[in-house]
Write a structure and sequence with these properties.
Strand order of the largest sheet: 1-2
Largest sheet: 2 strands, antiparallel
Strand content: 5-15%
Radius of gyration: 24 Å
Distance between the termini: 78 Å
């Protein structure tokens, strides 16, 4: 029996334990809510994580294709990025998969001499972790961009309210360049 067949047999148990391990990283109140609230509309975070990890695990059992896994990872990691988890905590859910698999199937892996397959399987998880780091960084960059844009808009509105912006004028531009608008600030 190959490793993937063994993991397929244990799929529901592994995915449940993986979900529980992920949820334990949240504060107690949040953890209880995420674990116990099954309604996808009242608990979109728990639902996204639960469905996402199940889909990731299923993809891994077939043959992981990063094009199929990317959107699933993206959904989970967006949540972690918005929740302001540091990268180590945001991506720990993938490391937890390794731990859960070893705890759930270690004796059978040794008994059936599947250690080499497990090493290869874990290497694929490592590749997924690297991809996830890229996704996380793009999400955080987007969040910082949004925050910076909001600060600029707020500053502009404050300057307008304080009547510190006196005129808007168009600057001449060369052919093919966009026209640049500048604000003159009273000072």
């Amino acid at each position: 029996m190959k490793l993937r067949e063994l993991l397929l047999e244990k799929k529901s148990r592994i995915v449940k334990r993986w979900f529980d391990a992920i949820i334990e990283n949240y504060p107690a109140d949040s953890s209880n809510f995420l674990k116990n609230q099954r309604d996808q509309f009242q608990n979109p975070v728990g639902n996204t994580i639960s469905e996402g990890i199940q889909n990731i695990f299923e993809e891994f059992l077939q043959d992981p294709d990063s094009e199929k896994i990317f959107p699933i990872l993206n959904d989970i990691i967006k949540i972690k990025a918005v929740q302001n988890f540091p990268p180590s905590k945001a991506l720990s859910f993938l490391f937890l998969l390794k731990k859960v698999i070893r705890e759930e199937a270690d004796s059978e892996i040794r008994k059936r001499q599947l250690a080499d397959e497990l090493t290869e399987f874990e290497a694929q998880i490592d590749k997924l972790i690297l991809l996830s780091f890229d996704i996380y960084m793009k999400c955080r960059e987007k969040i910082y961009e949004i925050k910076a844009d909001e600060v600029r808009r707020m500053t502009f509105r404050l300057l307008q309210r304080a009547n510190l912006i006196c005129e808007i004028q168009e600057e001449e531009s060369s052919p093919g360049e966009e026209t640049v608008l500048t604000q003159k600030i009273k000072g």
